[in-house]
Design a protein that fits this description.
The chain is an alpha+beta fold. The protein is built from six helices and four strands. A hairpin with a 4-residue loop joins strand 1 and strand 2. Helix 2 crosses helix 4.
Length: 134
């Protein structure tokens, strides 16, 4: 499961996501003694996601929590924009712009499909594992 910075920013701020993550952490740690108990644990999740999605998140719960935390630490370092060249029927190259110009133009062209903007952030920290460790 790979989430972009924008997706993580949008997702991590919702109460539903935090509740889902907490609930799924409990399920991942729980050792249900019967199929009935397992169904009861998972029944609260159906309001949030499909069984396939739930399974994928439970399997990657640690990585997801780490990615959300790392995303909070990422700092913007550059701003870029590109525009649609209707004469050539293609997108132009990404151009570096200032933070002020990005703030101004992204609002000005918020409903316009002819411009795209992106913010480049510092790299997320990487978990290191000692040689031979897990």
């Amino acid at each position: 499961m790979t989430l972009t910075t924008e997706q993580l920013s949008a997702v991590e701020t919702t109460k539903e996501f935090r509740a889902l993550l907490k609930y799924m952490r409990a399920i991942a740690k729980a050792e249900p003694e019967s199929a009935k108990e397992k169904c009861e644990l998972e029944s609260g999740l159906w309001q949030y996601a499909s069984q396939k999605t739930i399974k994928a998140i439970v399997e990657h719960i640690d990585a997801l929590e780490f990615a959300v935390a790392a995303n909070r630490e990422a700092q913007p370092v550059a701003w870029e924009m590109r525009y649609w060249n209707s004469g050539h029927n293609m997108w132009g190259d990404w151009e570096r712009i200032t933070a002020e110009l990005h703030a101004e133009m992204s609002v000005q062209h918020a409903t316009d499909n002819d411009y795209e903007f992106r913010v480049l952030c510092t790299a997320q920290p990487v978990r290191t594992v000692p040689d031979g460790g897990e």
